[in-house]
Specification:
10 helices; 277 residues; 5-stranded mixed β-sheet; D-Maltodextrin-Binding Protein, domain 2; 6-stranded mixed β-sheet; alpha/beta
C-alpha cells in the first residue's frame, strides 16, 4: 500500500513537471509584412499578449520582412503561429503542411476583397483607363494581386510601368503622392485611405481572408487552445476590442475556417504559378 502511494506521488510529481515544462516554452508569432516590421510588431503585440495570458505561456512577436520569408518560417517551424495572407497560407500549406485554425472577419464579412484605387482627382474611373499608366503592386510574391488585376481586364504589359512596393501603405502613399497613377490595396487599407483622398474604382470578387495558422509540429492541444482563444475574441469586451482593432481597424474578430475554403486562391493563381518562385 505504501509502495503504491509512493509511486502515485512520484508519478504525479513528474507528470506535473512534464506538463509545466510543456506549457512554459516560448511560442513565436510571425506575420506577413503588411507594413514595416516595427509597425507590424505594434499591431501584433496585443494579440501576442492576449494569447500569452490565455495559454499560460509567453508568445513573442517576430514579424517577417516579406511574404516569402513568412511562408518559409512557418513552413519550416521556425515560428509557431503566423498571421498570413491567403496566398501566403496556400504556399505555406504546400511547403510545410501548416494547419489553418481561424480566419478574420472584416466589417461583418467572412471574406475580403482587393481594390484598385486612384487619387480622388484622377481621371482614372475604370479599369481600361489604366492602359499606359504607372501602377503599384505590393509584394512581388503576392500572386493574388496580379491575378485580380488581370481578371479585372488589363494585362500587365498594358501598363506604362508597374513596380512592387512591398507594403500596402507604401502603395497608398505612392498613389497619393503622385508617384503612381493607381495601385491595388487590401479592402481595409483602401477604406482607411479613402478618407484621405484615394478613390476605389474596382473591387474584386470575395476572396477567403487573412488567417491564423500554426506549424505542423505544434501539439494538437496547444493548437486547439489557440483556436479557442481566437474564436472567443469579441468586440463587446474592451480588452478583446483592443486586440482585434490593433491588428486591423476594420476587423470584427475571427471565425473557424478550413483548407478547402482556400481552393479558390489556388485556382485563380494557377496561371501565374510559373512566376511563383
Amino acid at each position: 500500500m505504501w509502495l503504491r502511494l509512493w509511486l502515485t506521488v512520484v508519478f504525479g510529481f513528474w507528470s506535473g513537471m512534464a506538463v509545466a515544462a510543456a506549457g512554459s516554452g516560448e511560442l513565436s508569432l510571425g506575420s506577413v509584412a503588411m507594413d514595416i516590421p516595427a509597425v507590424m510588431h505594434q499591431r501584433l503585440s496585443p494579440l501576442a499578449s492576449y494569447l500569452s495570458r490565455e495559454l499560460g505561456q509567453p508568445v513573442q512577436v517576430r514579424p517577417d520582412v516579406g511574404l516569402n520569408q513568412a511562408v518559409e518560417n512557418i513552413a519550416a517551424g521556425r515560428v509557431d503561429i503566423a498571421y498570413l495572407t491567403p496566398i501566403a497560407y496556400v504556399k505555406a500549406q504546400r511547403a510545410g503542411k501548416v494547419r489553418i485554425i481561424a480566419k478574420t472577419v472584416t466589417k461583418g464579412q467572412k471574406s475580403f476583397r482587393l481594390m484598385l484605387v486612384a487619387r480622388e482627382d484622377s481621371a482614372i474611373r475604370k479599369v481600361p483607363d489604366l492602359v499606359g499608366k504607372r501602377f503599384a503592386f505590393g509584394d512581388e510574391a503576392a500572386l493574388v494581386q496580379r491575378a485580380v488585376v488581370v481578371n479585372a481586364g488589363i494585362r500587365l504589359e498594358n501598363f506604362g510601368s508597374y513596380r512592387f512596393l512591398g507594403h500596402y501603405d507604401n502603395i497608398a502613399r505612392g498613389v497619393m503622392n503622385g508617384d503612381f497613377d493607381a495601385g491595388i490595396l487590401k479592402d481595409t487599407t483602401a477604406y482607411h485611405w479613402e478618407k484621405k483622398g484615394l478613390r476605389i474604382f474596382y473591387t474584386s470578387p470575395e476572396l477567403p481572408p487573412y488567417n491564423i495558422v500554426v506549424s505542423q509540429s505544434m501539439p494538437t492541444g496547444t493548437a486547439k487552445a489557440i483556436q479557442s482563444a481566437l474564436l472567443k475574441l469579441h468586440l463587446d469586451n474592451p480588452e478583446h476590442r483592443t486586440v482585434i482593432k490593433a491588428l486591423d481597424e476594420s476587423y470584427d474578430g475571427f471565425v473557424a475556417t478550413s483548407d478547402a475554403e482556400y481552393d479558390i486562391i489556388r485556382k485563380i493563381v494557377k496561371p501565374f504559378q510559373k512566376e511563383d518562385r
